[in-house]
Write the structure tokens for this entry.
Amino acid sequence: MRGLVFLLIGAPVLAGALGTLVLSLAEPGLGAYARAVALPGLAQSLAATLISGLGATLGALLISVPLGLRAWRDARLRAALAPVLALPHAALALGLAFLLAPSGWLARLVAAVVGWTLPPGVVTVGDPFGVTLMVGLILKEVPFLVLMTLSAASMVPALVQMCAGQALGHAPGSVWRRAIWPQLLVQLRLPLAVTLAFSLSVADMALLLGPSHPPVLAVQILRLFTAPDPAQRPVAAALAVLLLAVMGAAMLLWRFAEPGFLHLLRLGPRQRELPVATLFLWLGALLLAGVVAVLGLWSLAARWPWPAAMPELGLQGWRGVHWLQPAWTTLTLGLAASGLALLRAIALLEAADRAGRPLRIGALLLLPLLLPQIGFLPGLTTAFLWLGLPPGPIAVLWAELLFTFPYALIVLAGPWQALDRAMLRSAASLGVGPWSCLWRVKLPLLARPIAAAAAVGFAVSVAQYLSVLLPGAGRVVTLATEAVALASGADRRAAAVMGLLQMLLPLLAYGAALAMPPRAPGLPRRGDDC
């Protein structure tokens, strides 16, 4: 089983990382590294990368502490996390750009009140320190960390400890912050590493919200890798290795800073808690609602001059945008990637069952999520060429599977391992073989978790940008690549249509998963006669 995991996940990722490292050493005497260090504005690029990446990770972690308690106690909030997680990165960044830009919808609403005749001369989107990018990353990562917190809380006696703490006179927030959450931090180390890797290496959100001259390191690496001059690629590889080193140093620093963070977390009132969770919840909900609304308005705008608060409506954007082909490509890639990822996950879990031991989801399975994408995808693209696989849909599908498979496995592993083993033993005692048990017992019982895993894999595929752009070499056009490309143009309506469609597809997948009945038709309810 370890060999299968390595073949499916470890080998492609390690080959990509090794290819990037080899390319960075292509010039004699570490010449690529010397050229990378001499790039104009490298220090500012590194500063913007650290501010946005580290700031977003730490901010999302701090916000997830009170929100984790709120979600642990509120089933409605837990149900609302899935649609937020389904929001693709590019669509979220595009909506934030349309909302927070100096001429964005928020400024137009203020102008309607105070009478501005010109947009304010303040740099919001694309600020040199990446603050707006950090805000977008926090919005994207907080739901993920909250869900990981809830998963970790299910493994400790949180309810018993909460009741005991309240009996001693502590407020619920104090019990959560002082006693329960510190126990969860060990299990949150891998999700934190995933969050950090994403925040440091995200390219689509950085292109839409981050600084341009100089950009963050991920965008700088992408520009050099896709430059017409092949001599720039070793420099890009050297910067990618530098980014990997930055992430490794950040994770090492966090391990030393954990005790101090926990000490600061325990400070504060014991009897009364400030309503920080409510504040964060409302701010996040308002921003997300604004993102969805402004994308919808721009997609239906016939004309929207400054400083009008609302556009003149029309369908020119939908008529004039060639959105059908990118939408179809995104849909087919998403269905293929999620389907293959689901088959892989079921095969791996079934193999673990037949081996008689539970599957452990460790660092090897999460390797594509733990390493910055820009650090290994360029090398993986080169490896594809060595294998004779040209840029195109097959290469893109292979690259997307590196990300859809771990997420689908994470979603399905818990329900799979929680199956009632007594029922499986009863089936075996009645002469049902392993394959019949899989098809007639396990899969029907797990119909809803399987649908949820497929929906998560589909959403991950729809959100992919670098894994489409680099292995596809521009020959595969999806909603994500089109939304980022059109955002830099003059027609905001075209970009909004792409962003809105990219947002809609995962929501439809999640809706289909939620509509799945909790048990397959024909299976008896508990207590029914068999």
